[in-house]
Design brief:
The complex is a heterodimer of chains A (about 300) and B (about 280). Chain A has about 300 residues and is mainly alpha-helical. Chain A has 13 helices and 2 strands. In chain A, helix 1 crosses helix 13, helix 3 packs antiparallel against helix 10 and helix 12 packs antiparallel against helix 13. Chain A starts with a helix and ends in a 5-residue tail after the last helix. In chain B, helix 2 packs across helix 15. The two termini of chain B are about 45 Å apart. Classes of the chains: A mainly alpha (about 300), B mainly alpha (about 280). The interface between A and B is large, with 98 and 97 residues.
Chain lengths: ~300, ~280
């Protein structure tokens, strides 16, 4: 009887409650959403407007149309240097940590208890402050100490380099530090994805006499494809946004040799006090990096297997 | 199990035991440890030792480097600032992201999809896209050179990750318990604070640990907004301290160790929480 009574009473409570809950729901979401809109959403839109102004942050802003963008694409040599460096950064980051993380995850995945040790140590750099790890590499790349001193002491002084002073090396030296910091992330993502794969598939492959390479190529990689795509997408976004290591280790120098778009925007806004121009650069960076996302969504919509 | 399957299983078992797998893995292990290990070693040597025998372990331990660096870098103020910023960010994000995630999961709002899409879009744009106007607005509002101003920014930028993570957790929770609490006369806020929060404590712990780490380590917004020496966070103070040319390597190393040690201890204690949280929060 009592069960029946509750069933009957329920819809009445539910409709009355639902209307109340809807308003409450907005009240629940409002603090977070308004704060986010105020700090991220609205300023992001303002940047698009600001990109058409000449403004030093103090004097009244002057509307100049697309002049900032014309300057970026016709006269700003640093922009092209930074963009090229971003592409170099991206192409290395799309390959090295992904391959290293995947292969290492497959190897560690076959282990027993020692998995835990490897996972802990490989991932640990990722949680460290980039300020400290960047400075740590500043020490290692020191002109007289760090690795150069080690080379000298083991009788190989010809290996000593001006790691952060040589314009042909500096970008890769900084990139190496960032790679060291980051690759463990790819590793744990792949390791987690591997553990979702049905063991039976490997047994089936073993029964069919598949070699380890064949198992990797025809079982592991296809099953990890969504994970690999996710990593490649994230890597692309992060590579265009890379900032900390260059800013702390070299400030983009020497002579912009290690400049990236993110540091160039920062330099234009803060050091050169060109808020409008920096905004135009930021809009350009966003269009470039979101172009990749749009292409991905487009391919997915078209039913392409990515 | 058939004879073939048994043989296959035996073969995988044997492969599992192959010691050569450990060889490249141990080399990688060494390369992952080396820079931090060297930092730890240097923090206990003297400047002279570091400059003459870069790879040798300390002959005599010099823990006084830590005290000297702490005093020279004026870390007591910086640590206070960072602890305050991280603690306030953790509490604030858990509260507002928890409420928002609950509202988006359980209260069946029209527009939930649009809000989710907005947050998804927000995490893909570079910080540089909103940094410039935000800086000038913050200066106008007196929120630059203010820890409150920085905390507000962290509350905004660490929200999407926290909402996604908490929402996924709420979706997996049975709704019956909340309904029972409603029947017992709990208001929606009471349902949230007395039922939902205790039941989803592991998810809130994950958010707290990761958002705490991020705000402890954060560099770009902190360096943009904070300039007064007495307001700098530990990461900023460390960069300023190591940028002064009269500071020896031993003290620099000790100063660096003090920035990463709290996070390192937390990571070793809550490794699973860190790894799972960071994976699910890939969309930072």
């Amino acid at each position: 009887m009592s069960t029946l009574g509750r069933e009957a009473a329920r819809p009445a409570i539910a409709t009355a409650a639902r209307r109340r809950r809807r308003w409450l729901g907005y009240a629940f979401v409002a603090p977070a959403l308004f704060l986010h809109l105020g700090i991220v959403g609205v300023p992001a839109l303002v940047t698009f407007g600001l990109s058409t102004f000449d403004w030093d942050g103090l004097k009244p802003a002057q509307f100049i149309g697309l002049a900032n963008f014309v300057e970026i694409f016709t006269r700003d040599d640093v922009f092209f240097k930074a963009f090229t460096n971003n592409l170099r950064w991206l192409s290395i980051f799309l390959v090295v940590p992904v391959v290293l993380g995947l292969v290492t995850a497959v190897m560690v995945g076959t282990l027993g208890k020692s998995q835990f040790l490897y996972r802990t140590i490989y991932f640990m750099p990722y949680v460290f402050s980039s300020a400290v790890t960047a400075r740590m590499f500043n020490y290692l790349y020191h002109p007289f100490y760090g690795v150069n001193l080690v080379f000298k002491q083991i009788g190989l002084p010809q290996l000593a380099q001006s790691w952060l002073g040589n314009p042909f090396i500096v970008l890769y030296a900084v990139l190496g530090a960032s790679l060291w910091h980051f690759w463990g992330f790819d590793f744990v993502v792949f390791l987690a994805a591997l553990q979702q794969i049905d063991r039976n598939l490997y047994e089936a492959a073993a029964l069919d006499g598949a070699s380890r390479w064949q198992t990797f190529r025809y079982v592991t990689v296809p099953l990890l494809r969504p994970t690999i795509v996710f990593i490649l997408l994230m890597t692309t976004l992060w590579s265009f946004n890379a900032f900390d290591y260059v800013y702390i280790m070299t400030q983009g120098g020497p002579a912009h040799a290690s400049e990236l778009l993110a540091t160039w925007i920062y330099g234009s806004a803060v050091a050169a006090r060109r808020a409008g121009y920096a905004s135009a650069l930021a809009v350009t960076l966003t269009l470039i990096s979101s172009g990749v996302i749009v292409a991905y969504i487009y391919m997915k919509r078209r039913g392409m297997e990515v | 199990m058939s004879a073939n399957a048994a043989a296959a299983a035996a073969r995988t078992d044997r492969l599992r035991g192959f010691p050569w797998v450990h060889l490249p893995l141990l080399l990688l292990l060494l390369s992952a440890i080396f820079p931090v290990g060297l930092l730890a070693m240097n923090s206990l040597k003297t400047d002279v030792e570091i400059k003459s025998a870069p790879l040798a372990p300390p002959t005599v331990l010099h823990p006084e480097n830590y005290l000297n660096a702490w005093n020279a870098a004026k870390y007591n103020i910086a640590f206070g600032n960072s602890l305050l910023v991280s603690a306030a960010t953790i509490v604030g994000v858990c509260l507002i992201a928890g409420l928002a995630a609950y509202g988006l999961t359980r209260l069946r709002l029209p527009g939930t999809e649009a809000i989710s899409t907005y947050y998804l879009l927000a995490v893909t744009i570079p910080a540089q896209l909103y940094l410039v106007p935000l800086f000038f607005v913050w200066v106008r509002l007196g929120l630059s050179d203010s820890l409150v101003g920085l905390i507000l920014i962290y509350l905004a930028i660490y929200q999407p990750f926290s909402i996604f993570l908490l929402r996924a957790y709420f979706l997996g929770m049975p709704e019956d318990i909340e309904d029972a609490a409603r029947v017992d006369g709990c208001s929606e806020f009471q349902v949230f604070s007395r039922v939902v929060i205790p039941l989803s404590a592991p998810a809130f712990l994950t958010v707290a640990v990761i958002v705490g780490t991020w705000s402890w380590n954060e560099f770009l917004f902190a360096t943009t907004m904070l300039h007064k020496p007495e307001l700098l966070t530990v990461a900023l103070k460390y960069v300023v301290f190591t940028g002064m040319f009269d500071v020896d390597f031993a003290q620099q190393s000790a100063a660096g160790m003090m920035v990463i040690l709290p996070v390192m201890i937390l990571f070793l204690a809550l490794q699973r929480t860190f790894v799972q949280g960071m994976i699910s929060g890939g969309l930072k």
